[in-house]
């Protein structure tokens, strides 16, 4: 399976990082070895001094598809959750500044904690889903899919031009503002709508 991620999909997040707004979705992949499930702890790797959390709505692909038209995209995923797109921001900056791919900064082991999946049909309006991340009981990120530059359906149409989507593939759909570094002992808890879907510690 593959994990497809969209970068820079919320304007206020683009602003906080001083990037420019993309005209097409910015896409990268994470390997399956980056997945952390069942609220397992995340261990800060020794190659970074600045691991940022990015809470994102994640789609689970439920059907094989390629070249999917936007109007049919909703048929290709069946479940949603929150995932954390952990990013070694110091490495990302270093690579980006030298004009090189910043892949390593987002693809290391444990860089994709995943919450429990909820049925997509429980969220009839996909362009109005709220979500939030609390760390140690303090609200750190709050988002709504209405603020996405590229909607779920836009993303599926776009990425399926390049990749065959397979059952079980995941799509991280971008993060709202509020990203910061984690530290040992932090407790990350995120909600999709009113449902708590992930609750884990940083070690
Ligand atoms: Mg992200």
Describe the overall structure.
The chain is α+β, with helices and mostly antiparallel strands. The chain has helices at 11-16, 89-97, 104-107, 152-162, and strands at residues 3-7, 26-30, 35-36, 51-52, 55-61, 77-84, 87-88, 112-113, 118-119, 130-135, 138-144, 170-172, 187-192, 195-201. A hairpin with a 2-residue loop joins strand 10 and strand 11. The two termini are 27 Å apart. Residues 5, 7, 54, 56, 85, 174-175 line the site of magnesium ion. Residues 5, 7, 54, 56, 85, 174-175 line the site of magnesium ion (MG).
Quick summary:
The protein is of the alpha+beta class and 203 residues long.
Sequence-ordered SSE layout with sheet pairings:
Elements: E1 3-7, H1 11-16, E2 26-30, E3 35-36, E4 51-52, E5 55-61, E6 77-84, E7 87-88, H2 89-97, H3 104-107, E8 112-113, E9 118-119, E10 130-135, E11 138-144, H4 152-162, E12 170-172, E13 187-192, E14 195-201
Parallel strand pairs: 1-12, 3-8
Antiparallel strand pairs: 1-2, 4-7, 5-6, 5-12, 6-9, 10-11, 10-13, 13-14
Bound molecules: magnesium ion (MG).
- The poorly predicted ranges are none
Helix content: 10-25%
CATH topology: Fumarylacetoacetate hydrolase, domain 2
How many beta-strand runs?
14
Share of β-strand residues: 25-35%
Any idea what the CATH architecture is?
A: Alpha-Beta Complex
Our measurement of the CA-to-CA distance between the termini, rounded to an integer number of angstroms, reads 27 Å
Number of helices: 4
- The domain count comes to 1
How large is the radius of gyration? 16 Å
């Amino acid at each position: 399976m593959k994990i497809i991620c969209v970068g820079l999909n919320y304007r206020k997040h683009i602003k906080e990082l001083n990037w420019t707004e993309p005209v097409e979705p910015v896409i990268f992949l994470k390997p399956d070895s980056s997945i952390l499930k069942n609220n397992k702890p995340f261990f800060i790797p020794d190659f970074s001094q600045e691991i940022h959390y990015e809470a994102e709505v994640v789609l689970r692909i439920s059907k094989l598809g390629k070249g999917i038209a936007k109007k049919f995209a909703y048929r290709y995923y069946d479940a949603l959750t929150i995932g954390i797109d952990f990013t070694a921001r110091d490495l990302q900056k270093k690579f980006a500044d030298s004009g090189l791919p910043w892949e390593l900064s987002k693809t290391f082991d444990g860089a994709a904690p995943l919450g429990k999946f909820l049925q997509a049909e429980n969220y009839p309006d996909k362009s109005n889903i709220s979500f939030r991340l609390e760390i140690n009981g303090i609200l750190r990120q709050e988002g709504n899919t209405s603020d996405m530059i590229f909607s779920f359906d836009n993303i599926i149409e776009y990425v399926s031009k390049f990749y065959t989507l397979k059952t079980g593939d995941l799509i991280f759909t971008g993060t709202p503002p509020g990203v910061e570094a984690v530290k040992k002992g932090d407790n990350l808890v995120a909600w999709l709508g009113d449902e708590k879907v992930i609750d884990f510690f940083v070690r």
